[in-house]
Amino acid sequence: MFDSELLFSGAFKNLKGNIIRELYKYTTQPGFISFAGGNPSPQTFPNEILADLSAEVLRNNGVSCLQYGVSNGQMPLRQYVAETMTAEQVPTAVENVVITSGSQQTLDLLAKAVINPGDRILVESPTYVAALKIFSIYGAEVVAVESDDEGIIPQALKEELEKGPVKLIYLIPNFQNPTGITLSLERRKEIMDIVQHYNVIVIEDDPYGKLRYSGEAVPHLKTMDPQGQVVYMGSFSKIIAPGLRVAYAVCDEKIAQKLVLGKQNNDMHTPSLTQLIVYEYCKRGYLEPHIQECCKLYTQKRDTMLNMLDKYFPKEMHWIKPDGGLFLWSKLPEGYSAMKLLDYALPAKVAYVPGDSFFADESGINTMRLNFSTATEEDMEKGLKLLGEQIENYLRDSK
Ligand code: PMP
Fold first, then answer.
1. Residue range 107-126: average pLDDT?
2. 7 — alpha (psi -120 to 50), left (phi > 0) or beta?
3. Does one domain contain both 133 and 221?
């Protein structure tokens, strides 16, 4: 009689788990080397400091951590975010800041607040897979805008905007997930010049922005936003620890109020305990040196990966050097499939993410994402040697 399948919403009936989670059943086997995950290195987690701060915060602020709290977030943390954003040339008042339980929640709340089924949303091609899923859960028509090795192409964005109303443009300007690409200042300016002529919200998702290993910092899109169209999304996940679930949105007050309404009806508020731990961590000056340490470690890992690719990947492969973040994007020659390559790689106990799932239009069959933050240097050499051999086997077998 009871059949839950008949009860699920249309959106959830068709919702599939993402490939990264599905690969877990392989990558957790002993001896497996995985470049598939997207996690920061656990080596970077400041366990001891966080343990001390947790105890202190609980002792000193017991009631405010353990009682229900305000939906927009703990005031000291909102003030801290407002000050740091202002220092980054985005004049910000506390009214512009909403603390969320991860940027993933910011995305979900924003999508819920603006999308009616059928609304058009423009995204880079490829883009963050969870964003694609969130937008489609709310019934959006997600349009992939033509992008190249330098990111989204402003003229192509303009052409899509000309075709009809668009609610959201979703961009990851720094060290993009999955490509690692950073949008140049010129493209950022061009994009902001274009979007100000349209009634559209731009999401600037920036979880990796502070993890830069080479090149110069580029100003946020939000610094070029006279009308308040940009919702800037920051997160402490990659620079302290993702398990804390503390992130923030910086945006126009009217949009902030809608996000807060969304939170009231969702998780009520981000846990006050983790908000205050993050606040104390930042206020006491731990964050900046910690970020420098993370950058040191990740620079080494990125460089090792680049060296190993030079050494072990066949000459037919192409890849893009990232200036920061956690990912490197690589391509097989046209006509080959990174999904098929898994049939060779998984038995050899090495994994990556086939890139097609990051594309809204199901292209990118020959692409793959390699994560460089978690494998040890030794595993990186071993794993990329194995992967290089399997690519050679696959290319040879497919001739
Ligand atoms: N946006 C992008 C581009 C990401 O890569 C991630 C995490 N992998 C998120 C958002 C979500 O981050 P958070 O932990 O803050 O929810």
1. 98
2. alpha
3. yes
